[in-house]
Design goal:
Elements (H helix, E strand, L loop, with lengths): L2 H16 L3 H8 L3 H8 L8 H10 L4 H5 L2 H4 L10
């Protein structure tokens, strides 16, 4: 799986679990709707840490909690052909 798709799935999964739309997440996180749309649609491959931090806070998580999940922890950059 592509690196960017891992955190896209994480955002979508957390939204689904909590009954939050991407629109609502944008408002809660103070991340522009267009920025969040670009991330979720895969147009933004490497969002800034600041952006991910704002998203994590909106989910009432620390950035490390947001990034601490099996798919990301087991990701190997050797398998990733993007540079």
């Amino acid at each position: 799986m592509e690196y960017s798709k891992i955190y896209i799935a994480r955002i979508q999964s957390l939204c689904k679990q909590r009954g939050i739309s991407i629109n609502k997440l944008a408002a809660m996180s103070d991340v522009k709707q267009s920025t969040l749309d670009n991330i979720v649609r895969g147009l933004t491959k490497n969002p800034r840490v600041k952006t991910l931090h704002k998203i994590a806070i909106a989910f009432n998580m620390t950035l490390s909690e947001f990034l601490d999940f099996d798919e990301l922890n087991s990701f190997s950059f050797e398998d990733d052909d993007e540079e």
